[in-house]
Amino acid sequence: RDEHVYFWFPLLAGLSELTFDPRPEIRESALEVLFNTLKHHGGAFADTFWRRIFDSVLLPIFDHVRAEFTDTTTFTSNKRRQEEDAWLYETCTKCLTHLIDVLVLFYDATRSLLPRLVALLKSFMSRSHHSLAAVG
Q: CB of 76 within 8 A of CB of 84?
């Protein structure tokens, strides 16, 4: 439905972007609101819209995690790296938990996304970074 694209997509994409705001309270709230919105309204979304959400709203969160990991391991002090590692691990864990909850809740509409979820989990398991590998 077109109204989903025009109404829901900008809201969900904006919340996704806020999950990497430098302020912890904004990040945490955005993640919770994003997934609460999906859980409460996702039943109205078509399979095609779920694919778009997965590709353009949810997966980019993990792209940010990978980029942040590269930046913090390359350009920061050990203390800052430890703080960033804790933040990335917590963000990934929460996001993956919510993502799995949403895919299970709307299994009929999202089952085609399961192979991609498994690929995402495998990508974390194969990482040399121990905390991120543990997320998978």
A: yes
Do 21 and 80 touch, CB atoms closer than 8 A?
Answer: no
pTM of the model: 0.79
Q: Cα 110–106–123 angle (5° rounding)?
A: 45
Q: Cα–Cα distance between 71 and 67 in angstroms, integer? A: 6
Chain position carrying tokens 């709203």 = 57
CA distances 26 to 33, 110, 133, Å, are 10, 28, 26
Asked if residue 1 has pLDDT above 80, the reply is no
CB burial readout 27-49, b (16+ within 10 A) else e? bbebbeebbeebeeebeebeeeb
Mean pLDDT value of segment 77-81: 66
